[in-house]
Protein: WD40-like Beta Propeller Repeat
Organism: Micromonospora pallida
Amino acid sequence: MPRSTLRRAIAVASTLALGATMLVTGGTPATASLPGSGSVLTSSNGQNSIKFHGDPSRTSLSSSDTITGASWSPDGSQAVYLDQQGAIHRLRYDDGSARYVDMSWPDPGELHRSPSWWGDSRIVLAYQYSASTPWRVASVSPGGLQGGLAWISPHDGKHYLNPDGGPGSLVVFQRQDDNGSGQPSGQPAVMVYDGSLELGQLRLVDDNGSNPSISPDGSRVAFVRAGRIVVSDLRGENEVPVTPEGVQYDHPTWSPDGSTLAFSRVTPTAARPVYTASADGSAPPVAVPGLDGVPAYQPHRKEQVVRLSGANRFATAAAVSQSHWPNGALAVVLARSDTYADALGGAALAVAKHGPLLLTPPTGLEVTTRAEIQRVLAPGRTVYLLGSPGALSTTVENQVRAMGYDVQRLAGKDRFATSVEIAKAIDPNPDAMFLATGMNYPDALTAGAAAGSYFYDFDSGFTAVVLLTQDEVIPPSVRAYLDATPMNLRMLYGIGNPGVTAAYTYEPNSPYVRGYGGANRYETAYQVASILFEGQRYTGFATGTNWPDALTGGALMGTLGGPLMLTPGTDTNLSTHAVSLLKETSGSVHTGLVFGSPAVVSPAQQTQIGTWLSGPLGSTSVTNPTDGSYSAR
């Protein structure tokens, strides 16, 4: 989910208060074992390539880095690995010449080890501050502002090494005592962490085992004991020896279907040939030709692209609403359909009030919108009208009241004052304020999805609002709202070059100001998506040449915790910035959402979205689902 620097600091502080812990380990661990299909097996051994077995399209994937401990994302689209300088990177499966997004860069004295994908989005790794401190295990989301580490292992003076991320919230890793000099010592133990539990997340699996790997269904763990690969359940019971005595093996990892284990054989030389065996121990190990080093299966999983569209802007907004709220919402935000001025802060409001954003002409309630309000909202709930009676007439207000709804009108004397009233309805003292020009729509649409995404975790308590500027100038009504909140209690984000200038003019040299503006609307959207979001599972796409679909779609993206990318929708190709974002985030993003009909965002662009967010299996396309299934993935 997207997090500001302030949000990260608070989140990390909360984790510390709960007594959780953090990051990495020495040695090379087992790699992630995640569910999926396929039997492609890879290996990495500190050289400049990943070797493949079982993939008819390739035998290797090269990089300018050395690659150690490569581990695959759930869809097989990205490998995460450790390079020669101890930094953690990601690599697209189909483009070994490109390296995307530094996951971590160790400071002097720090060590990073053992990156492994965890569930759908996060990465677990081991971390050591210095040679005299214990190894720890933590998770980090790919992309976004750096520094958002969530501690997993306890800060108890013991060493926690070799994490292996599994499905859902499960992680296994190795625990050892300290030898008094900051080094792991003594008999290792296998531990399992369950992030879904408030208490008792960490428990012992086996008191004599190292380098564990959790099965794709989360029911079993493979580990090393005296050189043998052993499988047990998560209670350490029902043990099955997979390899014979007398031969040393290491680095176990599970096939995506859980039937097979791959591991490396320890030899007197540097060679570590890869073997496989049945996970139930029914057959002896078999060598895999051409593979050497640490093995990792590449899971294959289809991703999806969802198009939400209608014959016009009203029908598209209704399709967005029906797709995510099949069983109803808590509120509806209603904006005028003929101009954007009063509506630009509405996406964040819709997320905060737990409902969709719909459109209607100023003079009367449009028929499709009327029907969708009645479908999605129970009588007695609230419909928020954006703008004065000059924007949405009293006729519209009276029609909504006659349908049995409470009406709250949020309006000021102009678009700037209206954005303030919308912000106040969200929170008089928000944690973040996004400044974007109200003299045009693209930057504010991008900001709306980002501000709304602060509510992605509805229990977080974080709030964010969008405030409109008169290009580089902050109007008096907006300035008064800003003045009412001390700068050290919130972050101020300028979105787009006018918003950036306004933000830094208002608070020059402040550590609580950030600005993200590109050479055009597409680059600005990319900057916001790549810097303010991390580990998102959804990315939205709307035309950058008009505003209605991006407005209603942005409200949904805020609800899903994903960014909204703008693209020249009628062109044959996506914007280069949209392609870059998809390449960088494909390991975590499993669903792309397209807002608007094929006449607005071309089928060719939809195809490209599916290509770049997916792994080897590609993607499926869905149009106007009404069961909420895509948002339950």
